[in-house]
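COMPLEX REQUEST
Ligand: fe (ii) ion
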Amino acid sequence: MLSNRGDQIWPAKDYTRVPYWLFTDEEIYRQEQQAIFRGPVWNYVGLEAEVPNHGDFKTTFVGETPIIISRLKDGRLAAVVNRCAHRGALVRREAYGNDTSHTCIYHRWSYTLEGDLRGVPFRRGVAGKGGLDESFRDEEHGLQKLRIESFKGMMFVTFSPNTEPLPEYLGEEQCEQIARLMCKPVKILGFQRQIIHGNWKFYQENLRDTYHASLLHSFFVTFGLDRVTNPGGTMLDPSKRHSFLHNRHDPSNSKPVVHGGAESSNAYASQGVTAERVRLEETSFLQYRDQYHDDLRVYIACIFPNAHYQQMNNCLNTRQMIPRGPSAFEVVWTVFGYEDDDEELADLRKHQANFIGPAGLVSMEDAEVIESLQSTLKYEYEACAVVEMGGRGAITTHNDNKVNEIPVRGFWSSYAQLMGIEPTGGER
Ligand SMILES: [Fe+2]
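STATUS: Structure written out below.
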């Protein structure tokens, strides 16, 4: 067990050093399944708009555990483990569907949408022989039920009876941002899926790291979507587990930038960074239609441990991260708009969905970097990452600059707490 090992694991109490072996170790990964994904957290599992009608279901995962989400007759949602209570086979194999019950293919045991056992073939045997004993109680053999709650149409489940109610877990500022994003009925425009061959925690770091965004992602910098010189910053909830990295619209940059802007070009040039390697012939891609009447255009939010939601101009999306062993994870991108979007706006959203996904003009580099990280760290049990941008010490919740890695340390402090490996006197 790892308990009381926090002091040995972390060279710095403020999480400015992250031991690389945490990304590769099998035992750590096994413990994460229990302590994190089955622990007192809300795992994101999709949008309610994916299962709008009675009998609609989707299958997905919480950590490595397969689950089914179903829409019940009275409009409520139900979440169960997708594993037959009989002999453990996967009950539902489809990604989506509509049905009145869930039936396992192995021996045709059948369950209600809520997971209660309702049918066992040959229960009484044949000609009085075989079958189940009279004492067998159906109510003791349902699918394992999970708590499910949704906030503004985003669905979350938890294995733990101790997880606080969802809005409390999300915190006030995340609730505000989700309410802004999910301000009216949404229409799903499509999905992208990707397996990235790296540890899931690299992704959590990546999406909390505002510093890399305008250095790694040429597209961001070149076309003015995200530059260190734009107004913006980082926000953490009071628990430090969720983050919100934001870019505020710079009024001096009101038109799409086709080949750089003087101020930021100079800022990057002075750091020896070439920010204008490419130019766009077709600039309609960078258009923005404002529906929110504020200055927020590009942001990425993380809800611990696996949810992300994002606005990139008019491309709205959520990402569900699913761990697939210590050195792989899957990302499911859900791109959506609003039901009342006109055709032009819906088209613009789909067009701008090219920012994200496996071949995304921005997201593609993140996968490349994460895969290279995983390959450089094999069997490394001594070295650590240095996470000092933004300073050492206190993990501050609100920072008005984009040259900091403080949300990354916020992730690690929350992770260490759940894993029971906090250093004595560690930053909270
Ligand atoms: Fe990135």
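REMARKS: The pocket of fe (ii) ion is lined by residues 206, 212-213, 216-217, 366 (CB under 6 Å). Confidence is low (pLDDT under 50) at residues 256-260.
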